[in-house]
Amino acid sequence: MATKATLTEATRFFNEQFPEGCSYNSRYSQVSAIRCGGNGQDVNLRFQRLGNQLQFLASLYNKLPSSSTSKESVKTAILATLTAMEDLKNSSGQSLLFSNANLGGSPSGGIVLAGLVITRTGIYDDLDTTNRNRIAVATDSLATQIASWMDSSSNPSYNALEDTVSTWRNQKIANFALNGPILHVGSLGLYLDLLATHSSASQYAKYQTLYKYGTYVMDKWATFDSSGTKASLAIGGLLSINSGRKFFPSSGYNAYVGMGLAWLAHGIVYTGNLGIIPNSRLICDSKKINNFYSSVFSSQANMKAYEISEPADFTGEKLTEDTILAVVELGYTRTEIDQLLAGHLDSSTGYLYTLAWNGDPAFLTALDKAVRTAGETVFLETEEADGSSVIIAYSRLGEAAAHRAMAGFAGMLQRDILTVTDGK
User: Fold this and answer.
1) Cβ proximity of 82 and 123 under 8 Å
2) What is the distance between the alpha carbons of residues 307 and 325, in angstroms, rounded to a whole number?
3) Which residues contact 393 (CB under 8 A, 6 or more apart)?
4) Domains along the chain?
5) Distance from the first to the final alpha carbon of the chain
6) DSSP conformation class of 227
7) 219 contacts: CB under 8 Å, gap ≥ 6
8) pLDDT for the residue 38
9) DSSP per position, 264-309
10) 46, exposed or middle or buried, with CB in 10 Å at 0-12, 13-18, 19+?
11) What is the gyration radius of the CA atoms in the chain, in angstroms?
């Protein structure tokens, strides 16, 4: 298995995926479409994807050597991203940098705040006064909104923390979708660690609320194997299959929860540095999701991790007809199930790159092999000699893949995971 330097491949990703890059390839990149709103993306998705871009660009900028000639190109791309974010408006015409359209309903707010925090810790000093002010106000505004939202009496997810958890076929089901809230409070954890003035995490007035969100993920909603070292989470939420997608683990959902837990660890144990992984149980909890998907890889010849998979069997196989019929017997219609399946039949193994934030290089090496074996790659003809990494080849599948790759690169750069592989 050949390796390449993470920083080299991250720079290559920038040059290929971003219009400001020196080898931009419009066949694969939809970065510009996300910025300008092409291809029918709704405003929350665009906001979320711009958060992924900001995390990646700021992380790359901060890691490039000061003598690098490509640094100015990255700076140009970051400023273009900031401008695009400023141009995004919610339904009331407010800038989404200052007022997230739907904090509780999607993961976008947390993903953007994480990007803003990373920007504040490095590139910020190199920006002009206008953009420094914009970043500072946006970061503080979004952090304040999330802090107010997370324990509000009107917040359904906070109220649901204490609700009874239902089960089905040994699969626990949370009463709300966890990924958005965990990413929100996780990004707030990053903000508190890196930018706030508390001398220790326990001094934060809402520390117990942060702790509750983090520890409840595994204590109440995770399904474990017999050893207690592997954990998956079903997509909890509303009663309707279409809205809540209950019962079923999902690679994208689990990966975002794991990323949020890794961020939130910074709000429980302060480090002052993203390169230092907090000594927190939340990091161990996040890695239990890695362990679940490692077992998924080893149990299937194609090594695929599906966006919707069999519940609580620790194989992660595609939904079977028997499971579909069992769900229908619970009162859901076959039409609902078929609509659900229509959008989630393909493998989404590469979504797991967002787990890079928990700092597990052995898992990422296994993931590279799984993504290549699953066929979730677009290798160019020249790459047998050129030696592209798997994450680069994965990023060419489309905008969802590219933005998961951005989150993965950001995590690897920040956690000092120095190499990526060709997956062979």
Assistant:
1) no
2) 19
3) 372, 377, 378, 379, 383
4) 3-421 (1.50.10)
5) 5
6) T
7) none
8) 65
9) HHHHHS--S-TTSPP--HHHHHHHHHHHHHHHHHHH-TT---BSSB
10) buried
11) 20
Q: Cα separation of 364 and 354, whole Å?
A: 10
Q: Give the residue among 254, 235, 245 at the shortest CA–CA distance from 292.
A: 254
Angstrom distance (rounded) from CA 421 to CA 1:
7
**What is the structure's pLDDT at 91?**
61
Q: Alpha-carbon distance 286 to 57, whole Å?
A: 24
Kindly give the pairing relationship between strand 419-421 and strand 3-5. Answer: antiparallel
**Alpha carbon 94 to chain centroid distance?**
25
Mean pLDDT, the chain cut into blocks of 10 residues (424 residues total): 95 93 85 73 82 95 85 86 75 64 70 94 88 88 90 86 86 88 96 95 96 96 95 78 69 96 98 97 98 94 90 81 82 76 76 98 98 93 75 93 96 98 94
Contact assessment for residue 150 and residue 185, using Cβ atoms and an 8 Å cutoff: yes
pLDDT at 311: 83
Q: What is the pLDDT of residue 244?
A: 47
- pLDDT of 344 reads 61
Which are the contacts of 84, defined by CB distance < 8 A and separation ≥ 6?
Answer: 35, 36, 50
Q: What is the pLDDT of residue 221?
A: 94
Round to whole Å and give the CA distance between 186 and 261: 6
Tokens of 385: 């000699």
CB atoms within 10 A of CB 181: 27
4 forms beta bridges with: 420
Closest CA to 254 of 228, 208, 223: 223
Residues 6+ apart with CB under 8 A from 31: 17, 18, 19, 53, 399, 402
- Would you say 30 and 403 are in contact if contact means Cβ atoms under 8 Å apart? no
Secondary-structure percent of the chain, ordered helix, strand, coil, rounded to 5? 60, 5, 35
DSSP string, 21-43: STT--TTT--HHHHHHTGGG--H
